Amino acid sequence: MVSLILFFFYLFGEYLFKKNYYTSVCEILKNQKGDVIHRLPEPKTYEQNLYSQLLKNVYEEQGTKIEELYNKKRDNLDFLTSWVHEVKTPIAVSRLIIENSMGKSQEEILNSLEEEIDKIDNFVEQALYFSRIDAFAKDYFITDVDLERVIKEIIKKHAKIFINKRIKIDIDDISLDVTTDKKWFIFIVNQIIDNALKYTNKGGMIKISSKKNQKEKKLIIEDNGIGIRPEDLGRVFDKGFTGYNGREKYKSTGMGLYLAKRLARKLGHDITLESNYGEYTKVIIHFPNLLDYYNVC
Questions:
Q1: Whether pLDDT at 57 is above 80
Q2: Which strands, in side-by-side order, build the sheet including 168-171?
Q3: Which of 107, 114, 122, 227 has fewest C-beta within 10 Å?
């Protein structure tokens, strides 16, 4: 009887000890106003402390995920806003070409329109790859790609701009095979060539060459255009960064090199850049020799 009485006293004491905590928790669940996690009562037992810590960890993890989604949504909105402004420019120019077509030959008009359509096509391609970059792992196929054939295919696509701006192209020895995904690699090189053409003045030159050593193969694309200011060099691959050239001289979304760099990394490659303002810009795509391309992400 004494043991039973002592046991009931213990249960009653335990009940009183925990009652306030659980009453507070029930009140929070009923009201659910404000930041619930920070309104939890102070834990009184080791078990309550574990549950409180677990809830706080889950809350912080969910908060981090929500913040990431918010940042991603904001980046997508920023890109979309910038993209819309960019794509409106060639559309407006195309209309002006049509309105001012009197006295011009049909070939001249068509060439001008084709150049603007190519710009629109490039912007649309950027938006497509930007939207699919997170699903990259489901959409790549690694093979040996003939570098020379791919480069000539890309140059042919930009032939009109080369001719209209009278930019010379110097293709050195690029008879190499590289292990990559052809479709994504073409997009990467396209962005680099587009930039070179945009920032190279009429009568300039773009040189494409390759190098090979025991560690890697390199594709080098160099132009003698306006170059990049020293203060902008470290940020040219940042998302949305346009730099002095993109803001003051040429309208730019700041997404081309960002996408090229990110896709190159996913393919197991890398991109570096050298430039001297007013003289040249050199973009180098690196293809490491020792790499398991079937584990790229």
A1: yes
A2: 168-171, 205-212, 216-223, 280-288, 270-276
A3: 107
